[in-house]
């Protein structure tokens, strides 16, 4: 699954891990995150993320 990186703080959202602290289950694609989801490290919105290839 496609990973996404925060353009502000470089946090990487990995769908295989999800975001358990925010109630996002492992396996949740970035596109299916709630619109009000925020970066767990710096608090910006999904609009500040872009696809990441490692």
TrEMBL record:
Manner of cofactor binding, per the entry note: Binds 1 Fe(3+) ion per subunit.
**Keyword set for this entry?**
Electron transport, Iron, Metal-binding, Transport
Q: Where is the signal peptide?
A: none
* Residue numbers binding Fe cation: 6, 9, 39, 42
Protein's name according to its UniProt entry: Rubredoxin
Please give a single GO biological process term from the UniProt record.
Answer: alkane catabolic process
What does the record give as cofactor? Fe(3+)
* Annotated Gene3D superfamilies: 2.20.28.10
Q: Which family does it belong to?
A: Belongs to the rubredoxin family.
InterPro entries in the record: Rubredoxin (IPR024922), Rubredoxin-like_dom (IPR024934), Rubredoxin_dom (IPR024935), Rubredoxin_ET (IPR050526), Rubredoxin_Fe_BS (IPR018527)
The family database entries (NCBIfam families) matched by this protein are listed as: RubredRD
Q: Where is the Rubredoxin-like domain?
A: 1-52
Matches recorded under Pfam families: Rubredoxin
Q: Which domain of life is it from?
A: Bacteria
Q: MF terms per GO, please?
A: electron transfer activity; iron ion binding
């Amino acid at each position: 699954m496609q990973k996404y990186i925060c353009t502000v703080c470089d946090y990487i959202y990995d769908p295989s891990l999800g975001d358990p602290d925010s109630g996002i289950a492992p396996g949740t694609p970035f596109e299916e995150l709630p619109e009000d989801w925020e970066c767990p490290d710096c608090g910006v919105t999904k609009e500040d993320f872009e696809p990441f290839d490692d």
